[in-house]
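Protocol step 6 of 9: fold each sequence in the batch and record its structure tokens directly after the sequence line. For illustration, a two-sequence batch is reproduced in full.

Sequence one:
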Amino acid sequence: MSVFVHPPRSCGIRFAIRQPNLVLVHVRGELDLATAPDLESRLVTTVVAQRRGVLVVDLARLDFLGVAGINALLKVRCQAERRNVEFRLVAATRTVLLPLELLDLGRAFSLHPTVDTAMPR
């Protein structure tokens, strides 16, 4: 009898810019039930510390976006709104856009095709 063992899922989170009014976070891998709580916790902590400005989350290198990941992003967006932090997502791949479209959440987020277009001017 064969047993399939799935490798542990991972979600890489890298803070590329941390300034008083701007934080840029790159996320890669899989954002699902196993990895979403860590991302949510780290982003909410960032929002609470920031209190104003812009938080840009780059999802361009995600391989999978599950409902738990979307729920985590919605929670972060709500925390950001409460603290006057603009929450912007870089989302141009089918991996990210399709789940958002299927759940009719495309307008729930400020979506940008590239990091450059998401950055404040």
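Sequence two, same batch, same settings:
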Amino acid sequence: MKRVALSAPPVQTERAEGSPWTMDEAAAFLRLSVSTLVRMEKAGTLRVFRPHKRNVLITDEEVRRIANGIELTKGIA
């Protein structure tokens, strides 16, 4: 999987720690597109859960894990 270098750190939010994220919220926080998150899910690098048939949520822990991974690869081509 290709790593993406970010120009800025992820956006800080005022969320209750541990609350799940929608794909749109996670994409905005991580500064990635929803399409990228969907590809990550299909590749097995992003774990999601579906409380309903079409509802896709990501745990807070998973979003922060991805954010830390992006920060570690920042500036690496």
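Proceed to step 7 once all outputs are recorded. Observation for sequence two: The first strand starts at residue 21 and ends at 22.
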